[in-house]
Amino acid sequence: MIDLHTHSNFSDGTDSPSDLLNKAMANGLTTLALTDHDTVAGWQEARDYLRPGLSLVLGSEISCQTTDGISVHMLGLLFDPENEALMTMMAQTRDNRIGRMHKIIARLNAAHYEVTIADVEAQLSEGATLGRPHLADALVAKGYMKSREQVFAEVLHNDSPFYVSHYSPTPEVAIGLIKQAGGVAVIAHAMSSLRGRVVSEESFQSYVQAGLDGIEVFHRDHTIENRVLLSDIADQFDLAKTGSSDYHGNGKLNQLAEFHTAPTEFEKLEARANERRVIKR
Question: CATH 1.10.150.650: does it fit domain 97-156?
Fold first, then answer.
């Protein structure tokens, strides 16, 4: 089984990369992608811990935003981490998250939520990419709510008065940089309306022109109708169709391998990278 979208505690997951790999093998996975948000910081631990029987795909989930303000997440897989342009863009996105967090906290403080940046930073593993899930964990730790899910449902969703947008490249720019770095680009949970506004069917023409390689069709946040539509779009543009858990450990309900990618689809995707970068022991 192949799972091409997971997170560790180097972003907003709760498992270390080594724990994630252990769980992947225990769940019968043969290929796992580590795709932390806007970072490659967890790659080395994953490489060092890799055991025979599991193939490792290294990547990152890149935060993007359309020109009309719709949030898009682009999975970059199998790219060269030495590519300066891609690394610079991800660093800029990470840096912007700090200013954004201060603004969200200020709004929460004005609404009498007593939380500080130190409270949020206490929820991060060393080197982790800062994000709203860490703020959610801080609010849970202070007793305001019982879970991340509740915090996002009630306080930190995209239509909340506490929401603050942040710098992100457009999907087309992110795709171009992933391709420039020799990798492949897969749009993640593109029709997940629970996360806010979603891209239109017509948007895919522009993404394909930029070099899009695949669509995450099978995801727990997609309805059957969403999956049919995305599958049809993938067929129209000859894109790979992936399925993924979007696993975050204890941070979300998603379970490893609950959706997976067919081997033929992964072969199609891997062939679009400029080098064979899947790691095996």
Answer: yes
